[in-house]
Amino acid sequence: MYRFGPDACSNFKVGTRREWIVTNGLGGYASSTIIGANTRTYHGLLVAALAPPVSRMVILSSLDEEIELGDTTHKLASHRYQGAVYPEGFGYIREFRMQPFPTTTFAVAGLLIAKEVFMLHGHNTTVINYRFSNPGRSTNIRIFPLVNARNIHSTTKSSDFNFTGDLLDPGVVVRESSAYPGTLPLLYLQCSTGRFVEDGRWYFNFEYDMERCRGQLYVEDNYNPGFFLVPVRTGDSWLSITASTRLQDVSEIQDLRKDQIERLREIRDRPGLKDEFVQKLICASESFVVHRSSTDALSVIAGYHWFSDWGRDALISLPGLTLVTRRFDEARQILMTFGHHTRNGLVPNRFHDTGEGADYNTVDASLWFINAVYQYLTYTGDGEFVAGLWGTMCDIIASYRSGTSFDIHMDNDGLILSQGQLTWMDAMAGGRMFTPRAGKACEINALWYNALKIMEELAPGIGDDPREYSRMARRTRMSYAKFWNETTGCLYDVIDEAGREDAAVRPNQIIAVSLPFSVLPPDRELKIVSVVEDELLTPLGLRTLTGSDPAYKGHYMGDRYSRDSAYHQGTVWPWLMGPFVTAYCKVNGHSIEARTRAKALFEPFAAHLHDAGIGTISEMFDGDHPHEPRGCISQAWSVAELLRSYVEDVLEQR
Fold this sequence. Notes:
Blueprint: E1 2-4, H1 6-9, H2 12-15, E2 19-23, E3 29-33, E4 44-51, E5 54-69, E6 72-75, E7 78-81, E8 84-88, E9 93-98, E10 102-108, E11 111-119, E12 125-133, E13 139-151, E14 163-168, E15 171-176, E16 185-191, E17 195-207, H3 209-213, E18 219-232, E19 237-244, H4 253-269, H5 276-285, E20 289-291, E21 298-300, E22 303-304, H6 311-323, H7 328-340, E23 350-351, E24 358-359, H8 365-380, H9 383-402, E25 409-410, E26 416-417, E27 428-429, E28 432-433, E29 440-441, H10 442-462, H11 467-479, E30 484-485, E31 490-491, E32 494-495, E33 501-502, H12 508-514, H13 522-535, E34 537-538, E35 541-543, H14 560-566, E36 572-573, H15 577-587, H16 592-600, H17 603-608, E37 620-621, E38 629-630, E39 634-635, H18 636-650
Antiparallel strand pairs: 1-9, 2-3, 3-4, 4-5, 5-6, 5-13, 7-8, 9-10, 10-11, 11-12, 12-19, 13-18, 14-15, 15-16, 16-19, 17-18, 20-21, 22-39, 23-24, 25-26, 27-28, 29-32, 30-31, 32-33, 34-35, 35-36, 37-38
């Protein structure tokens, strides 16, 4: 599906541009670059979610291979140290491919070594398979595990941990006494053949280039407990290593590999959509649906490597991740998770990284929840399930009407008013809110109207009276006219509590056009789409601010303050292509011409699947050409909204 030859792998800078990731349905993952050189603190072969889907720890950083042929030792690993790359194992790489799992093939003096990485779904277990082909003679391979025990956001010094190890047959169990009182097992490393030689030592001063560029901690040490010594015989042969938080039966690995392949194939083929781009996005979507703790509750990871599960992101993503893909059971469980955690009419903005508690500082997640329920009903017709969520939906409307936390309430004109930093444009650093948007935001009130119309439509079937929802919706629609800016021919982004309008041209208004129940008349919808297309559309999504605005920033780079100041001030977000395509097809009557034009908008994303995060869609891109990928390499709503809009609006299938 994705293949890269020597030209992409034989140069360190070029080879580290592309990254791969495989996940386990718990929030854990394995990830690195296509040449195996870690460039982020978030990279590792086993990043375990200890309180799924969060509390993620880098436990196994890498496996470094050495092969002795004659008097020469060939080192296949690649690491960045200060002023040097050593060893330069990327020079041995013949190809990297993902089909279906990341596989690197090395060529060493006629010996081919294919290294494949996958994870067991539902377990903090990574499997590394080696296949040896064409060895002219018997030799040995030494495989050195580099171990850690830290949170994904931090780095390690050798003084931080006290590792010990006990031999297994064959393998080793690594313990860490300072972080885990009582020296509880941290990592089980097992091998299908050979033996483990204990030789504990620290490797010092690895450097992670991406963290240096991001102004984060980027130097750390990793512990090596010893090495696997494995004979490589003449003829083709296999070797499997498992890295896990539990003891594994290594003899079952090849059967488990087949199970993982069949599981991915079933998810890809379930919707019956043969379009190649759609199938690739479906494969990408699989990684975001995750379990919470040890229960059957499901949630959505907002993005890899560092995001946890966020309410807004999950509910915007739900149609693309679970409805288009016909994963209806998962959709129900995700809705139940966020419905269960709703407090005072507010859906959690995000769950804490510790696995306990949540933040409720969002004005739109609850309104996206009602929209997601409606989309679920549209796809499934499952009124019985929706009836079970009706109380939560009513509580949301009542809380927004009378007032809830963060001064979220319906004003006298029927529009929703709230404090700043509660919409999706919520970047803040150094105590400064870069896009505060306090007051009445255009997309929030479009979502409010949409929610009221959904309640009005569903109420009779539930046995509720729709008239109050209808009355509130009419009032909101009348007052929404305040957002129209005749000068620009589009919407004001925000109207503050004093009635001052923010005329910045931003993409939030496209959401108002794309919702099932639009608060706008058709002629204004058409004008909004035209302005957004002219001012904000790029090949990879919508800019968050028009380039002519003095506050525009064309590059998302530097330390956290610099990056956050650009986060919503011009940076391109691919998820916004979803509502744009929906709005564009809508105002053009879903004509063949409109759908053909819309389909062409996805072509740059098909190319992007071969860049940055292989097989997935980045969080965002620079506002300026050439629109370099930035942020997370794999973002839920980027994948989900492209998938949803392509299937619903281009293919016109539900």
